[in-house]
Design a protein that fits this description.
Helices cover 40% and strands 13% of the residues. The protein contains 15 helices and 14 strands. The strands form 4 sheets. The protein has a 5-stranded parallel β-sheet with strand order 12-11-10-13-14. The protein has a 4-stranded parallel β-sheet with strand order 8-7-6-9. The protein binds FE3-S4 cluster (F3S). The site of FE3-S4 cluster (F3S) has 15 residues, from α14. The site of FE3-S4 cluster has 15 residues, from α14.
């Protein structure tokens, strides 16, 4: 791989051992994927923030970095943690967990990351169309590539951190135009009726997409941005999808029609097959411990919608309703949005992700969500916790009065 003088100096340890290791990791990833050079980036998004998924070795690594005086050289934002910075005691987060979680938070702060604690960094700092970025957090990668038209490969926590420290990524994969074209078309013969259905459609289709392929969709009517966010979250959960297209809607295929996709494999998605998929997964539960909304974190538009729906109602005493929202969105929301939610007894929670929170340890064993991603990951990451799904309307109808 070609490395310029600056990159060679970093690799030879002239900027310190940690930067050398970080660049070495990126060079190795690049070599394995046929990259011939590195490219500079100005923006990155880091995952690996919850102590639950990061664990002690990652915490140690972060603290070694801060001791060595390392700082990020990009505008680096961070994913949600396993608890909010304030009010974690009231949620029942164990002190032992909180202590480690705070050390991780402090370490990222010392690295000079911007502490947004959100998986929707694009809603606060949207990258430009065509801008090369290094994002971890698969749903955010899918969104910025697909809905904005920025360019990011799907990074893991370590390589996104390495990219943030060095300001470099290997030039490979989705950074090349030729790798961004639709490679399989899903002709959907119905319009999903809620964000939950878009999210589950993502789950349904994601596992049918081979690694490295970019699914394109045709729908009878155009999905909204929130629908695309939900679709991308589902696709990135059950498959390794980092970029999807919706014909006539998303920026790279705005003027593309089905007939333009010559030689592209087509798969029909019928309402009947999708219903069957949903019905197989849909489980009944009377009294969930928790209703979790906001995976990915709720946008301002959706928060307003939820406020309208639950205004004048009360969450049943037998359950909790937590809305996961970034601080940036809470700050933009007016009192008329926040008040009805609070009055209904739902809690707006910032900084935190329901999937990487210590749910079992805080006494939660059953969760209802409208997110395919949360539905899929919660039981996998929280042993002994069951997840169920329901659309927002049903949630309001069944668990508020
Ligand atoms: Fe965000 Fe956590 Fe879901 S990071 S996308 S709320 S799994």
């Amino acid at each position: 791989m070609y490395l310029n003088r600056e990159e060679q100096d970093i690799l030879e340890g002239k900027k310190g051992e940690i930067k050398a290791k970080a660049l070495k990791l990126l060079v190795e990833i690049g070599k394995q994927n046929g990259a011939e050079e590195l490219v500079d980036i100005q923006r990155s998004h880091i995952s690996g923030v919850s102590y639950k998924t990061a664990g002690d070795p990652y915490l140690q690594l972060l603290e070694d970095m801060t001791e060595a005086g390392i700082h990020v050289s990009t505008h680096a934002t961070v994913n949600p943690a396993g608890m909010p910075r304030k009010g974690w005691e009231q949620l029942g987060i164990p002190k032992k967990f909180a202590r480690k979680q705070r050390r991780i938070i402090n370490a990222y702060k010392k690295l000079n990351c911007e502490m947004i604690f959100s998986c929707t960094p694009y809603s606060i700092y949207p990258p430009r169309k065509g801008e090369i970025v290094a994002f971890a957090e698969s749903s955010a990668v899918a969104y910025v590539n697909s809905v904005i038209g920025a360019k990011s490969n799907r990074h893991g926590s370590l390589d996104a951190l390495s990219a943030s420290i060095t300001g470099k990524v290997p030039k490979m994969g989705l950074l090349f135009e030729e790798n961004r074209k639709p490679s399989v078309l899903f002709k959907v013969n119905f319009s999903p009726s809620s964000q939950m259905e878009f999210s589950l459609l993502g789950l349904y289709v994601g596992k049918k997409v081979e690694k490295g392929k970019n699914p394109a969709f045709s729908f009878p009517s155009s999905p909204h941005t929130g629908d695309l966010k939900a679709l991308g979250g589902g696709l990135a959960t059950s498959g390794s999808v980092a970029l999807f297209h919706v014909l006539g809607v998303t920026p790279e295929v705005k003027n593309t029609q089905i007939n333009d996709l010559i030689g592209v494999e087509t798969i029909n998605v019928t309402k009947k097959a999708f219903r069957q998929f949903i019905d197989e997964k849909k489980a009944q539960i009377e009294n969930p411990d928790l209703i979790a909304l906001g995976c990915p974190h709720i946008s301002l538009k959706r928060l307003k919608k939820i406020a309208r729906k639950i205004e004048g109602r009360k969450v049943l005493e037998s359950t909790k309703m937590w809305l996961f929202v970034s601080e940036g969105v809470i700050q933009k929301a007016q009192q008329e949005v926040l008040e009805p939610i609070k009055k209904a007894g739902a809690q707006i929670i910032n900084d935190m992700c329901p999937v990487v929170a210590p749910l079992k340890q805080i006494g939660i064993e059953s969760v209802v969500t409208d997110s395919g991603k949360a539905f899929s990951y919660i039981p996998r990451l929280s042993s002994g916790v069951e997840a169920y799904f329901a659309p927002l309307d049903e949630i309001v109808k069944r668990w508020t009065k």
